[in-house]
Automatic annotation (TrEMBL):
InterPro entries: PEP-utilizing_PTS_enzyme (IPR050499), PEP_util_C (IPR000121), PEP_util_CS (IPR023151), PTS_EI-like (IPR006318), Pyrv/PenolPyrv_kinase-like_dom (IPR015813), Pyrv_kinase-like_dom_sf (IPR040442). PROSITE patterns: PEP_ENZYMES_2. Gene3D superfamilies: Phosphoenolpyruvate-binding domains. One of its GO terms (molecular function) is transferase activity, transferring phosphorus-containing groups. General (non sugar-specific) component of the phosphoenolpyruvate-dependent sugar phosphotransferase system (sugar PTS). This major carbohydrate active-transport system catalyzes the phosphorylation of incoming sugar substrates concomitantly with their translocation across the cell membrane. Enzyme I transfers the phosphoryl group from phosphoenolpyruvate (PEP) to the phosphoryl carrier protein (HPr). Residues 1-282 form the PEP-utilising enzyme C-terminal domain. This is PEP-utilising enzyme C-terminal domain-containing protein. It comes from marine sediment metagenome.
């Protein structure tokens, strides 16, 4: 881990789109994989991936990692990611439609196949499960019920898996933040998905050039939501990390550290040493002071300028 000047440990992990990226994350100093996206199994195939295809992909990745943690996110289809053989009936608003965990709960056979593979793979390494786009307690409970069913099926068949496998959820819609104190009682960890959190909170499609300039991680509403999610996690003694792009944008590292984050999962891999260097160049107390100042600002531009100036002062060689 990276350690601040006053001794606070912070885990730095890697985000990956494909298993072949694991080596780069490790060689740049990642202590594990904090976001293993599984869409590649679907988007690169004309057929629904089998349980064995899932299992083989996961176990190969686990072997490369040794006992380092790997957080496998269940498939996040829909929105801008469509599986060729899935029901691609046109939706007027696909980002507000049947995507992610909703897609999985609508296609339980596909969901269970992936969960079986993840659980079977968990017998060989330090595996954790991550559910994306949870927006209500009921949605989480339904997903947990499916997971429980799969565990019971494997137990009945005598198939080995990690009986204490950790479960987390992405915090990436405003409703999840507002319910974070309730959701925290149901899971072992949170992972902040800031890309969607910003998009859904600010009602901005960042691929739309007419409004993309309004998309900002420094928006005070976003910082308040992050602060709320961190507090809910701390109050319930569960871990919280960040896997959204904001975590790899180094001008925000000190702010996120000061808000209380102790786990960053970032991409591309080459960013990892820079994030570590920033964390090792500041005290946690100083980071908290920076966060307090930033949270008093109402203008994203003011926040961004302050953070960049602060980063240049602390680590001029990076900026």
């Amino acid at each position: 881990p990276a350690v601040t000047l006053d001794g606070r440990e912070v885990a730095i992990l890697g985000n990956i789109e494909f298993p072949r990226e694991i080596g780069a994350s490790l060689s740049h100093g990642a202590s594990g994989i904090g976001l293993y996206r599984t869409e590649f199994l679907y988007l690169g195939s004309k057929n629904t991936p089998t349980e064995e295809e899932h299992f083989n992909a996961y176990t190969q990745s686990i072997q490369e990692l040794g006992n380092k943690p790997i957080i496998i996110r269940t498939v996040d289809l829909g929105g801008d990611k469509f599986f060729p053989t899935a029901d691609n009936s046109k939706e007027d608003n696909p980002f507000l439609g049947c995507r992610s965990i909703r897609y999985c709960l609508e296609n339980v056979t596909i969901f269970k196949s992936q969960l079986r593979a993840i659980l079977r793979a968990s017998a060989f390494g330090n595996v954790k499960i991550l559910f994306p786009l949870i927006s209500s307690l009921q949605e989480l409970q339904k997903a947990k019920d499916v997971l429980k069913e799969v565990k019971e099926e494997l137990n009945h068949k005598g198939i080995d898996f990690d009986k204490n496998i950790e479960l987390g959820i992405m915090i990436e819609v405003p409703s999840a933040v507002m319910l974070a104190d309730i959701l925290a009682k149901e899971v072992d960890f949170f992972s902040l998905g800031t890309n969607d959190l910003i998009q859904y909170t600010l009602a901005i499609d960042r691929s739309n050039e007419k409004v993309a300039h309004l998309y900002s991680p420094a928006h005070p509403a976003i910082l308040r939501l992050i602060k709320m999610a961190i507090k809910a996690a701390e109050d319930n003694n569960i871990r919280i990390g960040i896997c959204g792009e904001m975590g790899g944008e180094i001008e925000y590292t000190i702010l996120l550290l000061g808000l209380g984050l102790r786990e960053f999962s970032v991409a591309p891999a080459m960013i990892i040493p820079e994030v570590k260097k920033i964390i090792r160049s500041v005290t946690f107390e100083r980071a908290k002071e920076v966060a307090e100042i930033v949270c008093s600002f109402n203008d994203p531009a003011e926040t961004t300028k302050y953070l960049r100036d602060m980063a240049r002062e602390i680590i001029p060689e990076i900026f």
